[in-house]
Design a protein that fits this description.
By secondary structure, the protein is mainly alpha-helical. It has helices spanning about 15-30, 40-45, 50-65, 85-95, 100-105, 105-115, 120-135, 150-165, 210-220, 235-250, 255-260, 265-290, 295-325, and strands at about 5-10, 35-40, 75-80, 140-145, 175. The chain is globular, with a radius of gyration of 21 Å. The two termini are about 25 Å apart.
C-alpha cells in the first residue's frame, strides 16, 4: 500500500479533462492505497477570486470528488486552507527554492504573459506550496496530468535538497500519468489543453454541462478539411483529441475506434461521442446534485481536515526540529 496525494484548484467548474486526467485515477487508487485528495483553495488565490464564488466552488469541487466515486471511508478528502501546515511548510520550501528554477516553470511563464507587468508573487511561488502539499503526507505517488510533470520534478528536487541539508525527513514522490487521456485538449483550439479558465465556453466540456450543451459543444468541435478518421496529433489535432476522449471514456484502443469509423464521416463520430460523454456524466451529475445542498458534505470535509491535520502537524514538527526552528522535539 503506497501513499497517494493529489489536488485540484476550486477555480471554476471541473472539466472533462480534469476528470479523465486526474479524478478517475483517484477513484482507482483508493482501492489499493492510502489516499489524500485535497481541494487546493490557497493555490486558487494566486489570481483574483470573488469570495462567495470561491466558497461555492470549494463545496462544489468536494461534491464532484464524491460524486465521481471517492469514498470518505477509503480516502481522506479535505480543504487545503483547513490544514495550516500547508502554508507553513510552503514558506520553508520557498526559502529553499531558487528564483531561477521558479522562473523556469512553464506554467509561470504562460501565466506571467497574461498578467503583463503586474505579476502576482503567488504565481511565481506556487510550486513550493504545491511541493509542501505533497511532502507533508510522505507521498509516494502523485497522480496528475502531464502538464504538472515539471512541478513534481521540482518537488522531488526540493525534497532531496532538504534531506541532504537536514536529514532524511521527506519521501521522494513519483509522478503517475495515465497512458490514455493524460491531456484532453480544447475543442476549439486543439493545440492547447482543455482548461476551466478558458474564456471560450465552447472549448470546454464541464462535468456539470447539460446533455444539450455537451452535444452542441462536440458538434462544434474544430476538426479539419479531410474526411478520414484516424489518429495523428500533428496533422489532425482536432480529430485526434476526439478519439482520445472516446478511448478514455470507453476504454477502447484508439486503433479499434479508427477501424469502427472507416468510411464514416466526422458527423457520425461526433454524434456517437456526444452520447458517450452524456452517458458517462449522467450518474455523476445525479449524485452531485444530491450532495451539494446536504450537511453530509460538510461533515465529510470536517472529518477529512481532522485526519489530514494529524499527519501534517507531525511532519511539520519534524521539519522544524531538523532545521533548528523548534526548541524541542515534538
Amino acid at each position: 500500500m503506497a501513499i497517494v496525494f493529489s489536488g485540484i484548484q476550486p477555480s471554476g467548474t471541473i472539466t472533462l479533462g480534469n476528470y479523465v486526467g486526474a479524478i478517475r485515477q483517484f477513484v482507482s487508487y483508493q482501492e489499493q492505497h492510502q489516499c489524500y485528495f485535497c481541494i487546493v483553495n490557497q493555490h486558487a488565490i494566486t489570481l483574483p477570486q470573488k469570495s462567495e464564488e470561491l466558497r461555492h466552488n470549494i463545496r462544489s469541487l468536494a461534491a464532484i470528488y464524491l460524486a465521481a466515486g471517492l469514498d470518505p471511508n477509503k480516502s481522506i478528502l479535505f480543504v487545503q486552507s483547513e490544514v495550516p501546515a500547508h502554508v507553513q511548510l510552503g514558506w520553508i520550501l520557498q526559502s529553499l527554492s531558487y528564483v531561477g528554477e521558479l522562473e523556469r516553470m512553464t506554467q509561470y511563464k504562460e501565466k506571467a504573459k497574461s498578467q503583463g507587468t503586474s505579476i502576482p508573487t503567488g504565481i511565481l511561488t506556487y510550486p513550493p506550496l504545491m511541493a509542501a502539499d505533497i511532502l507533508l503526507y510522505h507521498t509516494e505517488i502523485v497522480p496528475v496530468g502531464i502538464d504538472q510533470k515539471q512541478h513534481i520534478e521540482l518537488t522531488r528536487d526540493l525534497a532531496e535538497r532538504f534531506n541532504k541539508r537536514f536529514g532524511p525527513i521527506f519521501t521522494i514522490p513519483e509522478i503517475q500519468i495515465p497512458k490514455v487521456g493524460a491531456k484532453i485538449l480544447s475543442l476549439q483550439d486543439p493545440t492547447k489543453k482543455m482548461s476551466k479558465s478558458d474564456p471560450n465556453k465552447q472549448a470546454t466540456i464541464t462535468l456539470l454541462d447539460t446533455p444539450n450543451e455537451i452535444e452542441k459543444k462536440i458538434k462544434r468541435a474544430v476538426t479539419d478539411s479531410e474526411s478520414r478518421i484516424y489518429y495523428d496529433p500533428e496533422r489532425k489535432p482536432g480529430i485526434s483529441n476526439l478519439l482520445t476522449i472516446y478511448s478514455a471514456l470507453t476504454n477502447k484502443p484508439i486503433r479499434d475506434i479508427e477501424k469502427e469509423y472507416e468510411g464514416k464521416g466526422y458527423g457520425h463520430l461526433k454524434m456517437d461521442l456526444a452520447d458517450i460523454v452524456k452517458e458517462a456524466l449522467s450518474s455523476l451529475q445525479a449524485k452531485y446534485y444530491d450532495l451539494i445542498e446536504s450537511s453530509k458534505l460538510d461533515d465529510i470535509l470536517d472529518q477529512g481536515a481532522e485526519k489530514a491535520n494529524q499527519v501534517a502537524k507531525q511532519t511539520l514538527a519534524d521539519v522544524e526540529y531538523a532545521m533548528g526552528l523548534a526548541r524541542k522535539k515534538r
